[in-house]
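Reopening closed ticket. The problem is back. First fold of the pair:
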Amino acid sequence: MNDSVFEIVEKSSQILKLDFSSIEFAKLAEEQELTEAQIQAIGTIFEHLRQKKIETTIHTLLKMSRLPLKDPKTFDNFDFSVIKGRDAAKLKTLPSLSAIYAHRNLAFIGPAGTGKTHLAQAFGYECCQRGIKTYFIKMSELRDKFTAARRAGKEASVLDGLVRPSCLIIDEVGHCEFDKENTRLFFDLIDRRYNKEGNFNIVFTSNKHPSHWRTNFNEDDALLCALDRIFDDATVFNIKGESFRGKRLETIALQTSRVKAPDSSETPTP
């Protein structure tokens, strides 16, 4: 059943953060003796403003997320048909974003080029489309952010910024070393998000199985506590197979031919 014009105006007012109910609109319409065409026109205007507000919000969320805006990785442009296996169907449940509402972390583990980052970014992109704040960061960028924060004495504000998004995506875990202090900050981040209220999760990608992550951290106790919280309630997708990259590679064989220079002893023909 379609919403009435009065319901559309009320729902639009909520999105636009206007204190204007369907009852108020109905009373105003009666007081002003508005015709049905005028009421419909007002409903159309409110619906337009609502859609515009939603589009602006999505654009802002995408811009703040650090996800690529040019040629974004989405579930629509991921080829699910190349993923085989008994539990392959579970990948297709990701667009529902149930993991966010269930506070379930996600980890995509596998060799380079098997679609891990695409899936992680697609999850974040879908979050933004639903009005859910998301932040994407590579593990090396996280290390540099922690190091800079320590030097500037801004650890608390940096952690606050990383705890705030509902969906935090950490890409390429295991591609860089974390010293003891940065490992402790990593634990603080995980611990604060573990105790966060509302709808949230963390999405990880890595070439290494989580059991091998400790080789890139220099504080075993802090890391073990972090891993305990990360995988307390999580889904790990182990992806095996060949890289997708280079499938459209075109190789063109070329050869140069040296042009013979004219003999200077020869007299040019007039």
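Second fold of the pair, where the issue appears:
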Amino acid sequence: MKNKLAVLFALVFPSLVTFVYFVWAKDSASVQQFAFGVGKVMQFAFPAVWVFVVLREPFARQAVNRRGQAIGLSFGLAILAATLCLYVFVFKPMGLFNDTGPGSPGAMIKAKLSGCGVTAWWSYALFGTAYSLFHSFLEEYYWRWFVFKRMLPFSSLATAVTVSALGFMAHHVLVLAQFFGWNSGWTYLFSAAVAVGGAVWAWLYQRSQSLYAPWFSHALVDAAIFLVGYDLAF
């Protein structure tokens, strides 16, 4: 029962944090930064505290699975290429990411970056590289190593994959809705793509029994998003 409650909390908490810093505090950069920092520390500390302090389980090093890495890298590179191609040849020409007016995705991205002190291309490159490498690892540790793995003892593999992927998707819905609107089909289409990615990474984690494969894959997908963001913001 304790693990079920821990998993439930872990499923819901990231969406609460995202709502506070990305929706509720969107007009106050200082409040937004504070809420983001505190919320993220609490989110990513919770699994480790629960497993190693509350349950007192021993720390186990993650094994490296070469086959899993190949699959993860292939999936990540495929999504990176598909994202850039769709953006350059489909979405940008059709005006989906129009960045010329107030309230447009480009203007909103610039405002968010400015609030974080990222105003030059080099600072954006550093921020994007660090985020792609480290935040992707923390999300894999949180969603696959903790949420997905902790569900397996009391649910089927399919249920654990589906529920963890939907939980991973939920806070992305809040972010995407700020850029495209709650009534836009793009918000839900891109959110569904996030859920598919989460499901693939859960399957990959189960197959390889290692965080390395989904982490490398996730990092490449985040890199693709930051490349699109660079074109919009700069």
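Update: turned out to be a display glitch only; the data is intact. Helices lie at 2-24, 29-54, 66-91, 105-115, 121-151, 157-180, 185-208, 212-233. The mean pLDDT is 90. Please close again.
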